[in-house]
Specification:
alpha+beta; 60s Ribosomal Protein L30, Chain: A; five-stranded mixed sheet
């Protein structure tokens, strides 16, 4: 078990199997030492854990928990892409999308759910740049999606 997996387990999180793509794309690509993880939505066993708009159907605290599910799915993809070497992974940047009700502007706070999980899992190698964007819709009407750019040490 990697240090990343140990830290997650200690906090009560388990890395799921990598989600299967929902359309015509691959879950990750690698160029040199850089890994690009496709956007990960909050699914467990192929099904969304929640649907709806943040600020209307989903409150901020729930959106942060949903963002953690997305981050765990991204970590699962990183585990596969790194050849099961999560301790060699450094998170460089995340791009976060929240399916927002009109007027909801705390997208950056929703993204903290994912960012804080990456920090917990990877320690200093989890510190990253990020963008957080509110959108009108997301696939399957999920409330949140995160994509990740990482590098292998």
């Amino acid at each position: 078990m990697s240090d990343v997996e140990s830290r997650l387990a200690k906090a009560g999180h388990q890395i799921p199997p990598p989600p299967k793509p929902a359309a015509a794309y691959v879950p990750w690509t690698k160029v040199g030492k850089t890994i690009y993880v496709a956007g990960q939505i909050p699914t467990v066993d192929g099904k969304p854990v929640r649907t709806g708009k943040v600020g209307r159907d989903v409150n901020l605290q729930d959106a942060q928990a949903i963002a953690r599910v997305c981050a765990l799915n991204a970590i699962s993809v990183l585990k596969e892409a790194s050849g099961d070497k999560l301790d060699k992974v450094r998170i460089l940047k995340t791009v976060n999308f929240a399916n927002c009700a009109p007027g909801f502007t705390d997208i950056h706070l929703c993204a903290n759910g994912a960012s804080e999980l990456f920090l917990l899992a990877f320690g200093d190698k989890g510190k990253h740049a990020r963008s957080s964007v509110g959108v009108a819709e997301l696939p399957l009407n999920v409330p949140f999606e995160v994509e990740v750019i990482a590098e292998l040490d």
